[in-house]
Recover the amino acids of this structure.
């Protein structure tokens, strides 16, 4: 009964979707926005990666929200897992030497790679979130390798705050410095394609990258059974 | 000036007639029962005796209720046409009569409530229930008369009847008259509705605590009640009287008829009485009212 | 002129600083929400004159709509921002002492961000941005509902999360479809081109979005999370969720229907849906013996009432609906706040255990009484003008269906009265049970409750104060053409 | 500020101040409350004869709120404040040793202020607002005594809300149709509305006022509320608060719909409405009166009479002639006087006997509490309508209207109701004050002075208005004239009109002479000796006390006959309805099963159902 | 077949969405519900990407040498997807955290048994 009902519901949904998609043929996108961004993105934001110019330029405010969402999740997860009774200390098997050594070896490389990704976010595929995720994966590896090492709480807190504040303050600076709009790109745009271009975008991406890295690490940390 | 005289005469006549009717009733009842019976003036003799005695009083309420009761009944006689004379014709008509009729029983009720005799309480309770029983048809009847003649003044009612014929002889009102006859014994407290006094059962009920002058007052009140009940019937249904003599004659006839019923019937229990009163008399009276409204409208 | 974007940026920035503040000194962090909301409130007040002249359009990043994201700060948006700031301020004052255990700094961060999310939803002029702010709102409320970490909190939070995620997925699908059809995400831009597209195609995305937003707005079939979440959260959070979160959801629904799609064919259905929501909410509330659950169901009812008012879509009813927003925020906030301490004191959420509280906690009980009277719509409290406007407008608009629905609405009021008065009686007129802690509401909570009571009384006695502004907010909501004109 | 505004401001401010003063000292609070009430009485009295309207507030949604005063308002306001002041005095000792006196006083003043607001309202919006304040403060007072009072209060407020909602619809409709809520303006506009609209309007308002006035099918809140409220407040509640319904009916029927224009115009539906209302009034007289007979709780018995007497007012008012209307209004006043008196007497008895009001366990208190007895005696005399009490005059006017107006059946209902009243109130009087005194009440003391004063004042008022009915009737005549009906021929002693006059002074003189004659007769001829209450009966022997008191089951034979027919059918119906709604609610909430997949299913069902409808019928 | 060709991406995307929904509707285990949510998220992300596709378009990144004249796909959905992924991660993290705590309280993650709050 329940299965039938579910199937019926899903079938009707599918039918509804089909009626819409008849008018939206695949590959036939003709968005005014898209073409505008592709044509003017470099001039407007100075980023060679148009996706980045959208993410941090045209729709930068979304990204601020996105950062906030991740922040909320990290904080919320911390609240959720810390607030409760301490989980009984689990017996953790010591990691094998291969893992320990491997993780120690790989960790700086991964950090470096992550940093590369977010620093070059405005030039190549990638960006703050991707870089942050890579950094977090590095920490995950460390956690796997040596069970008791953790990211320093004070460090984490300062980076979280610093990253977020940088974003907001840059936005506010845009408010006063140029154009009177929040998140205006008030720094010189430079030549698209060069590392030091696109004004505030690389700065924000660095902030985001660090922040996301720390937050995702925090999430992993919490899920592993936080110690605080 | 003659009018002023009737302010005094009406109550006096009422008292005298009432007392005489009481005596007559005892005599007549005895004759029907094949007894000799007391002299007709026996109530008068009793009254004189009561007044010469000393009675026990239970206080202010006990006294004043009785006084109020008698005074109320006396006042009521002023509202009832006695032949062509009605001392207080302009003070509210039938509705006032209906209400002033309350003063008598209520006064007695207060008075006997002042004593702590349960028989008195039971008697009063029965009296009120019985009144509820006969008031239902009675109110219908009175309303029929008032609607039929389009007036609330009893004087007008009498006048119209003398001009157009008695109510009892007019068609829809005939039914009311019939109903009235059926409930008249209850109004007069006669058998088969003699549940209030019920001497054998509750020692005369409300009057059980009265003795001496108190009993005299209550006897007078009872006499007046009888007079009032008959007078109302005669005025409403039998066209009153063109002069007091005719009027009193009509009353006498009605009273004797009631007495005959009284003499031969046993009495109802109070619930039987109410059941009876609310069935046939009420139905007939209601029919009378409905027909009057239909024919009048 | 101050820039409205500060309404979002400043609290957000303050929230970001809390982790560091917490590291330095633990006690300051609880004052951060107060400061943030005070700032917002002042800002809103200062913005009023400018907004009344005409909507303020903020082009974020300096890009012209529809290419950039814009904030649309019309009277309606400002109304919501102000309402959020005011309620948020009062409730944060209350939380100063109410929240005493657990990771306090995180609570305050999440609290600010919840309000930021709500403010963002109210101000944004971009569909996807709306979605993002909605997610901020939702995720922080998931976390806050489970803040106490007890069984009920976690269970309700998980259920809320699943339903909320399904809802936002539906919303996102709808947004995606709209982007596919129109190639734009700007509300005004879509509103402008809505007429050029086959209406039949638009219906499916509309329904997807309605379904998605409906979950947050707690419209009838989508509201199953609400009673659990609102009753299990800490009382201050229940107050915010009831007083702000679902109202913002409803605002978003109204924005979609009025501004973006501008379809009037669906109004009757929405009115019907509103009355159904009202009916279900009030009936369930009537059958409750748990006070917070009762209040939660009553929120569903109020949402239904407001939806009805908005869907009747005459100027008067929309004004009345907005008024009811205010009333619900204040009254339900007051009710939850006072219930919070009543529950602390009695140690139980059962109504029967609140008996005799009127003597032991006079101020808190008085607050509860004022709140319930206001919610039922008795004069001279704030609930009356709203209800009066709704009834008046609905009857003015006429039509058999609307009149019948109005009748149903009023029947629900009676039901509402019945269960609220029952609680008031329990507080004052039933013999108390001793037991529970001997705690009185502390000063901060008392200040919050007195403030709300005064607001309720002031609004009830002098509704003109809000009504003038609300009338322009109502025309802002209903005037899709003006919206398009001012943005593009 | 004009006079009306001052009065209202004083009333509300007084209520507020009483609260604060009562916080410091409850005695001071009570004294202050009484002072406020007396001052209000004086202020209202000063307003006599003034007719004006003034806008006092413009801050409410663009609708000017106004106050007005005319003869009708003044009449009701005067009655309200006087009775409230007397109740306040009465409550001084009644509430003395109780908890929450401050709350009681505050609410009493608030109710009074709200009632004043209702009668002085110049537009329907302020009318509604004051009406609602009145309702909820009444609710708080009814619940005040706890226990059963809680249920009574809930019943009251729910029914009251039903009425308010109906009224709200009516007001909303009026505002929509005419764009104004000013009563004076509406009275010009309403007669132009179509008959159907008028009927709907009257029905909506009729529900509200009918509930407040406890007209028969809507009466069920009243017996509980009267019984359970604290006695001083029961007095206010029964005296004037319930009769705000009558005020409302007068307002809507005569002021707004305009009796003279609408009532007798052909094709209008309002006369039909009036006939229905009159019949409801008749039913309201008969059934509750007989139910009252069955009651064994003093206050509940009086409460049922409160319903029954309301029927007279409706009947007189709905019949729509000058005299009937005057009778109805006059009866409102009279009823207020004697029912307040009766509740005060009961309150006094309760006060002294420790809250006993069971008719089967009291008795013989007349000698212990003479003032309370006099109050009760005068009260029931008025209630019955014994000649020379005020109740008689108003009832006479109503009967006369009905009989001469060709409605003998309605008249019959009214009359039989009166006779039923006699039975039940005599039982009340007898079982409390007459008969044997139970030994446990041997040491009952007389009522305190602050109770005696209002009781005596009201007793006097009953006689005064009974013997000189012209005093209030002059004012009432003014009201009738202001409605556009012809003036009655009112004189100080009664009414003279073409068919049937009433002259109470004559009657009084005759009765006085009669009493004097009999008294003289007794004085001259009779001698008596004062003996103990049961000396005669027990012949001087000691009887077991409390065994021979005939109070329990006073009208037993009658009860056994009629009680099967006298169920409060509507109360049962409403209780059933409430239970039904309760179980329906219980059923509805079962949709929230707690299973999260079902919840998701609801969401998706909604979406897919909408899509399905869209695809299948495409209605949008 | 042309239909399939043209709509294959849509079918895939919505297939995932519907599968995710069915999982939520028909499974009882909380972790499976969360997996269902994730599948749905993935489907939605695919859908968004698919909407932005322009036939034979390339990634919207300009090489250093300019790259003028190449057809680039719509960058907006890609930006949206980036945001949506992060949001999805956030929700996922919250859900998993709750699942951990819930298991601590109830000892089970079967949603049929976790229904103390109802009615």
């Amino acid at each position: 009964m329940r299965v039938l009902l579910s199937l019926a519901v899903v079938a009707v949904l599918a039918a509804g979707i089909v009626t819409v998609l008849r008018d939206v043929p695949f590959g036939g996108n003709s968005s005014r926005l898209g073409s505008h961004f592709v044509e003017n993105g470099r001039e407007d934001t100075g980023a060679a990666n148009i996706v980045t110019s959208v993410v941090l330029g045209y729709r930068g405010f979304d990204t601020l929200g996105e950062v906030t969402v991740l922040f909320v999740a990290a904080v919320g997860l911390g609240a959720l897992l810390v607030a409760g009774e301490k989980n009984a200390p689990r017996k953790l098997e010591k990691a094998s030497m291969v893992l320990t050594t491997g993780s120690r070896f790989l960790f700086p490389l991964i950090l470096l790679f992550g940093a590369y990704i977010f620093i070059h976010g405005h030039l190549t595929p990638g960006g703050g979130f991707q870089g942050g995720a890579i950094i977090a994966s590095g920490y995950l590896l460390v956690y796997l390798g040596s069970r008791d090492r953790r990211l320093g709480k004070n460090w984490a807190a300062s980076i979280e705050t610093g990253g977020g504040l940088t974003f907001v303050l840059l936005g506010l600076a845009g408010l006063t410095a140029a154009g009177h709009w929040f998140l205006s790109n008030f720094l010189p745009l430079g030549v698209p394609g060069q590392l030091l271009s696109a004004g505030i975008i690389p700065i924000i991406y660095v902030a985001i990258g660090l922040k996301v890295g720390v937050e995702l690490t925090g999430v992993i940390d919490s899920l592993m059974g936080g110690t605080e | 000036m003659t009018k002023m005289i009737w302010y005094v005469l009406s109550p006096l006549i009422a008292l005298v007639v009432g007392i005489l009717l009481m005596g007559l009733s005892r005599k007549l009842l005895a004759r029907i029962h094949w007894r000799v019976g007391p002299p007709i003036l026996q109530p008068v003799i009793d009254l004189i005796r009561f007044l010469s005695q000393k009675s026990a009083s239970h206080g202010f309420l006990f006294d004043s209720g009785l006084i109020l009761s008698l005074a109320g009944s006396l006042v009521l006689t002023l509202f009832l046409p006695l032949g062509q004379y009605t001392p207080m014709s302009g003070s509210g008509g039938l509705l006032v009569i209906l209400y002033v009729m309350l003063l008598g029983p209520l006064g007695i009720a207060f008075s006997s409530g002042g004593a702590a005799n349960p028989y008195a309480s039971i008697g009063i309770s029965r009296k009120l229930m019985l009144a509820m029983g006969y008031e239902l048809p009675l109110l219908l009847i009175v309303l029929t008369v008032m609607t039929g003649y389009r007036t609330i003044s009893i004087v007008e009612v009498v006048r119209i009847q003398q001009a157009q014929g008695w109510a009892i002889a007019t068609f829809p009102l005939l039914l009311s008259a019939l109903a009235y006859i059926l409930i008249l014994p209850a109004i007069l407290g006669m058998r088969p509705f003699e549940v209030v006094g019920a001497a054998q059962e509750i020692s005369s009920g409300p009057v059980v605590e009265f003795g001496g002058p108190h009993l005299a007052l209550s006897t007078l009140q009872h006499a007046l009640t009888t007079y009032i009940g008959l007078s109302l019937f005669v005025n409403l249904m039998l066209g009153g009287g063109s002069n007091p003599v005719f009027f009193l004659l009509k009353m006498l006839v009605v009273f004797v008829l009631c007495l005959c019923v009284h003499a031969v019937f046993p009495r109802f229990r109070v619930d039987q009485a109410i059941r009876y009163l609310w069935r046939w008399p009420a139905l007939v009276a209601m029919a009378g009212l409905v027909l009057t409204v239909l024919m009048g409208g | 002129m101050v820039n409205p974007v500060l309404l979002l940026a400043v609290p957000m920035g303050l929230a970001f600083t809390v982790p560091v503040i917490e590291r330095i000194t633990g006690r300051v962090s609880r004052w951060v929400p107060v400061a943030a909301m005070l700032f917002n409130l002042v800002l809103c007040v200062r913005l009023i004159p400018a907004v009344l002249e005409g909507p303020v359009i903020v082009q974020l990043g300096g890009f012209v709509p529809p290419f950039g994201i814009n904030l649309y700060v019309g009277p309606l948006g400002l109304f919501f921002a102000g309402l959020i700031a005011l309620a948020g301020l009062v409730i944060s004052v209350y939380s100063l002492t109410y929240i005493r255990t657990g990771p306090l700094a995180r609570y305050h961060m999440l609290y600010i961000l919840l309000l930021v999310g709500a403010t963002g939803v109210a101000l944004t002029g971009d569909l996807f941005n709306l979605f993002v702010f909605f997610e901020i709102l939702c995720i922080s409320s998931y976390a806050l509902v489970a803040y106490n970490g007890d069984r009920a909190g976690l269970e309700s939070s998980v259920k809320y999360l699943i339903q909320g995620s399904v809802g936002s997925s539906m919303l996102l699908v709808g947004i995606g479809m709209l982007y596919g059809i129109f190639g734009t995400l700007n509300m005004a831009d879509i509103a402008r081109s809505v007429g050029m597209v086959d209406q039949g195609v638009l219906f499916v995305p509309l329904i997807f979005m309605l379904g998605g937003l409906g979950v947050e707005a707690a419209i009838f079939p989508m509201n199953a999370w609400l009673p659990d979440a609102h009753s299990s959260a800490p009382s201050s959070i229940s107050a915010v969720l009831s007083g702000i979160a679902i109202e913002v959801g409803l605002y978003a629904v109204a924005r979609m229907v009025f501004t973006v799609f501008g379809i009037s064919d669906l109004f009757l259905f929405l009115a019907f849906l509103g009355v159904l929501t009202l009916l279900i909410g009030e009936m369930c509330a009537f059958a409750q013996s748990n006070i917070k659950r009762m209040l939660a169901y009553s929120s569903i009812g109020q949402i239904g009432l407001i939806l009805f008012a908005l869907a009747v879509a005459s100027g008067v009813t929309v004004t009345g609906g907005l008024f009811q927003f205010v009333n619900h925020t204040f009254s339900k906030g007051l009710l939850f706040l006072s219930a919070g301490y009543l529950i602390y004191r009695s140690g139980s959420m059962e109504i029967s255990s609140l008996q005799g509280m009127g003597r032991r906690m006079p101020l808190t009980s008085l607050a509860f009484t004022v709140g319930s009277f206001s919610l039922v719509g008795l004069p001279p409290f704030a609930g009356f003008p709203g209800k009066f406007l709704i009834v008046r407008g609905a009857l003015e608009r006429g039509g058999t269906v609307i009149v019948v629905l109005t009748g149903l609405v009023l029947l629900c009021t009676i039901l509402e009265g019945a269960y609220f008065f029952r609680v008031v009686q329990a507080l004052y007129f039933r013999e108390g049970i001793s037991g529970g802690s001997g705690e009185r509401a502390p000063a901060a909570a008392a200040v919050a409750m007195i403030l709300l009571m005064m607001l309720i009384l002031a609004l009830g006695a002098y509704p003109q104060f809000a009504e003038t502004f609300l009338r322009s907010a109502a025309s802002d909501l209903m005037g899709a053409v003006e919206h398009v004109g001012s943005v593009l | 500020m004009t006079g009306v505004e001052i009065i209202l401001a004083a009333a509300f401010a007084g209520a507020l101040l009483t609260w604060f003063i009562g916080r410091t000292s409850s005695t001071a609070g009570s004294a202050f409350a009484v002072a406020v009430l007396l001052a209000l009485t004086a202020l209202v009295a000063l307003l006599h004869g003034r007719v004006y309207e003034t806008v006092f507030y413009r801050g409410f949604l663009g609708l000017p709120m106004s106050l007005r005063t005319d003869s009708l308002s003044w009449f009701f306001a005067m009655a309200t404040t006087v009775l409230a002041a007397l109740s306040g005095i009465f409550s001084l000792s009644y509430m003395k040793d109780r908890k929450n006196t401050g709350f009681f006083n505050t609410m009493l003043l608030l109710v009074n202020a709200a009632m004043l607001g209702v009668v002085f309202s110049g537009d329907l919006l302020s009318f509604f607002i004051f009406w609602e304040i009145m309702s909820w403060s009444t609710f708080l007072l009814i619940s005040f005594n706890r226990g059963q009072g809680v249920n009574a209060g809930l019943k009251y407020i729910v029914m009251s809300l039903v009425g308010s909602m109906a009224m709200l619809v009516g007001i909303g409709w009026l505002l929509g149709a005419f764009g104004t809520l000013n009563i004076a303006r509406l009275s010009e506009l309403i007669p132009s509305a179509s008959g159907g609209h008028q009927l709907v309007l009257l029905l909506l308002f009729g529900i509200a006022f009918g509930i407040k006035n406890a007209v028969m099918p809507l009466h069920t809140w009243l017996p509980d509320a009267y019984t359970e409220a604290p006695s001083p407040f029961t007095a206010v509640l029964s005296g004037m608060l319930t009769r705000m319904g009558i005020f409302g009916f007068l307002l809507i029927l005569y002021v707004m719909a305009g009796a003279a224009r609408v009532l007798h115009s052909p094709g209008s539906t309002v006369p039909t409405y009036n006939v229905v209302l009159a019949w409801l009034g008749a039913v309201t007289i008969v059934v509750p009166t007989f139910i009252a007979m069955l009651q064994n709780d003093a206050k509940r018995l009086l409460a049922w009479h409160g319903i029954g007497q309301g029927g007279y007012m409706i009947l007189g008012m709905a019949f729509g002639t000058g005299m009937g209307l005057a009778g109805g209004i006059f009866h409102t006043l009279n009823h207020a006087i004697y029912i307040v008196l009766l509740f005060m007497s009961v309150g006094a008895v309760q006060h002294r006997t420790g809250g006993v009001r069971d008719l089967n366990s009291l008795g013989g208190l007349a000698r212990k509490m003479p003032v309370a007895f006099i109050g009760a005696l005068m009260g029931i005399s008025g209630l019955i309508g014994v000649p020379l009490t005020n109740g008689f005059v108003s009832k006479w006017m109503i009967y006369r209207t009905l009989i001469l107006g060709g409605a003998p059946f309605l008249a019959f209902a009214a009359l039989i109701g009166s006779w039923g009243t006699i039975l039940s109130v005599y039982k009340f009087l007898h079982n409390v004050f007459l008969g044997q005194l139970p030994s446990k009440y041997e040491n009952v003391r007389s009522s305190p002075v602050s109770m005696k004063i209002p009781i005596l004042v009201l007793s006097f008022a009953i006689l005064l208005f009974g013997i000189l009915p012209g005093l209030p009737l002059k004012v009432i005549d003014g009201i009738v004239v202001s409605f556009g009906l012809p003036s009655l021929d009112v004189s100080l002693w009664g009414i003279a009109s073409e068919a049937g006059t009433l002259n109470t002074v004559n009657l009084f003189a005759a009765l006085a002479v009669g009493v004097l004659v009999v008294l003289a007769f007794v004085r001259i001829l009779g001698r008596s000796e004062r003996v103990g209450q049961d000396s005669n009966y027990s012949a001087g022997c000691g009887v077991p006390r409390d065994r021979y008191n005939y109070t329990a089951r006073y009208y037993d034979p009658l009860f056994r006959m009629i009680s099967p027919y006298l169920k409060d059918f509507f109360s049962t119906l409403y209780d059933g309805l409430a239970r039904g709604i309760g179980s329906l609610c219980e059923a509805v909430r079962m949709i929230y099963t707690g299973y999260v997949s079902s919840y998701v299913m609801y969401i998706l069902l909604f979406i897919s159902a909408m899509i399905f409808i869209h695809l299948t019928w495409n209605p949008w | 077949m042309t239909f399939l060709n043209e709509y294959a991406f849509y079918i895939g995307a919505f297939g995932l969405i519907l599968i995710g929904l069915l999982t939520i509707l028909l499974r009882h285990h909380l972790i499976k519900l969360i997996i269902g949510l994730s599948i749905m998220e993935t489907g939605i992300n695919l859908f968004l990407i698919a909407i932005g596709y322009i036939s034979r378009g390339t990634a919207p990144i300009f090489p250093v040498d300019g790259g003028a004249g190449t057809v680039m796909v719509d960058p907006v959905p890609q930006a949206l997807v980036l945001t949506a992924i992060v949001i999805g991660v956030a929700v996922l993290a919250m859900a998993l955290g709750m699942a951990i705590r819930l298991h601590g309280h109830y000892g089970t993650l079967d949603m049929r048994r976790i229904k103390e709050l109802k009615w």
About this structure: The longest helix of chain D spans residues 322-353. The two ends of chain D are 57 Å apart (CA to CA). The mean pLDDT of chain D is 83.
